[in-house]
């Protein structure tokens, strides 16, 4: 089970961690520490480690706290995702060059000013203004990753992810908070037995049944998200990349029959292809 916690304090983090594990009666295997307001604290990692969870990823919105996050990333086995809401400052760019490990970058700038920043492994820094230059094209810590860490198109994710907001509300989907509220961290009773979760689960079963009957690509996506209208984008992507799918299957015997795993490879390659080094 993945646990997303909007960080507020070490005490709050402990309470959220314990409440979800006890309420859902499942062990947390990965923790996402979400810093919507920026900043960085090492305490959530240390708390998770004491609870036996070593797979910890920090999700920082904006460049506030990025220097400390990178310093900690260099010295500890954590993962890091930086979500950009505006172009990076020159100071932040220099700090990023101190990273010794790869980390993810998500571009959410309104004008897409940082698109070159995420376009390929060769481009380490964005050109937020025309006169900006790439500082070091050989330093490849950052890589293309446009989808958000919260993005999910599969109905099979239900019950595998929980998000705790800084207000103490608990949600079973980090992407669709309004439609996935199941309680608060002080509530008693299993979140998976809540009226809201059971209603969405029922809708997911119905939707998957319909997809299975009418769509030849069902085995590749396992049904669309029950909290979104319409179908996932897998059918369109597979029609466009059918030859690539056949190639991956033929070259990897271990993937034969594992359609969902292959689907993710095809979509990743189709949407985020590696580009030639542009130096």
What does this structure look like?
By secondary structure, this protein is an alpha/beta fold. The protein has one domain (1-203). It contains ten helices and nine strands. The chain has a nine-stranded mixed beta sheet with strand order 6-5-4-3-2-1-7-8-9. Helix 1 packs parallel to helix 2 (43-50) and helix 9 (242-251) crosses helix 10.
Biggest sheet strand order reads 6-5-4-3-2-1-7-8-9
Proportion of β residues?
A: 5-15%
Terminal residue distance: 41 Å
Q: Poorly predicted ranges (pLDDT <50, ≥5 residues)?
A: 113-150, 270-279
Computed CA radius of gyration, to the nearest angstrom: 20 Å
Order of helices and strands: EHEHEHEHEHEEEEHHHHH
User: What helical percentage do the residues reach?
Assistant: 25-40%
Oligomeric state of this protein: single chain
Number of strands: 9
| Largest sheet features | 9 strands, mixed
**Average pLDDT:** 75
- Global geometry: globular
Instruction: Compute the number of helices.
Output: 10
How many discrete structural domains?
A: 1
Structural class: alpha/beta
Set down the secondary structure blueprint.
Elements: E1 2-6, H1 10-24, E2 30-35, H2 43-50, E3 56-61, H3 66-75, E4 79-84, H4 90-96, E5 103-107, H5 115-118, E6 142-143, E7 161-164, E8 169-171, E9 181-184, H6 195-214, H7 218-221, H8 234-240, H9 242-251, H10 259-271
Parallel strand pairs: 1-2, 1-7, 2-3, 3-4, 4-5, 5-6
Antiparallel strand pairs: 7-8, 8-9
């Amino acid at each position: 089970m993945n646990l997303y916690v909007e960080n507020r304090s070490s005490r709050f983090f402990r309470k959220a961690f314990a409440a979800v594990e006890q309420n859902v009666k499942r062990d947390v295997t990965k923790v996402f520490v979400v810093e919507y307001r920026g900043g960085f604290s090492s305490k959530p990692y240390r708390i998770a480690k004491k609870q036996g969870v070593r797979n910890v990823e920090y999700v920082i919105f904006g460049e506030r706290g990025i220097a400390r996050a990178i310093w900690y990333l260099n010295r500890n086995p954590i993962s890091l995702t930086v979500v950009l809401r505006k172009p990076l400052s020159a100071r932040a760019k220099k700090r990023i060059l101190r990273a010794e490990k790869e980390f993810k970058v998500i571009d959410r700038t309104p004008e897409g000013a940082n698109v070159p920043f995420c376009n390929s492994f060769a481009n380490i820094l964005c050109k937020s203004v025309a006169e900006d230059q790439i500082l070091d094209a050989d330093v490849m810590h950052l890589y293309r990753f446009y989808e958000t860490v919260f993005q999910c198109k599969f109905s099979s994710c239900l019950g595998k992810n929980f998000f705790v907001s800084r207000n103490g509300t608990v949600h079973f989907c980090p992407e669709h908070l309004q439609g996935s509220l199941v309680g608060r961290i002080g509530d008693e009773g299993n979140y998976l037995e809540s009226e809201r979760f059971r209603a969405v689960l029922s809708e997911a079963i119905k939707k998957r049944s319909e997809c299975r009957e009418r769509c030849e690509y069902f085995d590749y996506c396992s049904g669309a998200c029950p909290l979104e209208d319409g179908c996932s984008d897998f059918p369109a992507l597979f029609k466009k990349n059918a030859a690539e799918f056949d190639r991956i299957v033929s070259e990897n015997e271990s993937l034969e029959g594992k359609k969902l795993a292959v689907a993710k490879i095809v979509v990743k390659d189709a949407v985020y292809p590696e580009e030639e080094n542009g130096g």
